[in-house]
């Protein structure tokens, strides 16, 4: 498939992000915070964004609860994660999951989110405004997940 649109997610409510990359134009990226309303993922706005971008495939980072995370924040995170999966499924977009370790190894990154932001700035210097702030690490990671998918999953015909 040529010019595949890849939508990717770094899940979360406060730092979550979505990115779009087209395989024919890997030097361009769109990245934004996940839409939130009243402290939850805004599924309707997210679905409208998908209707505009028309992704051929979605890549969601496979995550779980983190040690030391409180019950309330774990529940909120799980709810956001489930909403992302639900929107993708409802729109019948093929989905792949990737662990943080797998996509980060592909780019030679550690768990340090600043490394991800720096790599995104290197790969997309013309879109530096997307990753300019320290808190934009979610956008950077979503963009890198899309790039990982373009360089591995889509290239190998895995969607």
Keywords:
alpha/beta; 159 residues; two-stranded antiparallel sheet; 21% strand; Nucleotidyltransferase, domain 5; globular; five-stranded mixed beta sheet
Instruction: Please outline the major beta sheet.
Output: 5 strands, mixed
Number of helices: 5
Counting helices, strands and paired strands, the structural category is alpha/beta
Distance between the termini: 10 Å
Mean pLDDT rating = 90
Form type: globular
Residue share in helix: 40-55%
CATH architecture level-2 label? 2-Layer Sandwich
Domain count: the total is 1
Radius of gyration from the CA trace? 15 Å
CATH superfamily: Ribonuclease H-like superfamily/Ribonuclease H
Please render the helix and strand layout as text.
Elements: E1 5-10, E2 17-22, E3 25-33, E4 36-37, E5 40-41, H1 43-53, E6 57-61, H2 71-90, E7 95-98, H3 100-107, H4 113-123, H5 137-154
Parallel strand pairs: 1-6, 6-7
Antiparallel strand pairs: 1-2, 2-3, 4-5
Your description of this structure?
The strands form 2 sheets. The chain has a 5-stranded mixed β-sheet with strand order 3-2-1-6-7. The chain is built from 5 helices and 7 strands, in the order βββββαβαβααα. The protein has a single domain (5-154), classed as 2-Layer Sandwich (Nucleotidyltransferase, domain 5). Strand 6, helix 2 and strand 7 (95-98) form a beta-alpha-beta unit. By secondary structure, the protein is of the alpha/beta class. Helix content is 43%, strand content 21%. The radius of gyration is 15 Å and the shape is globular.
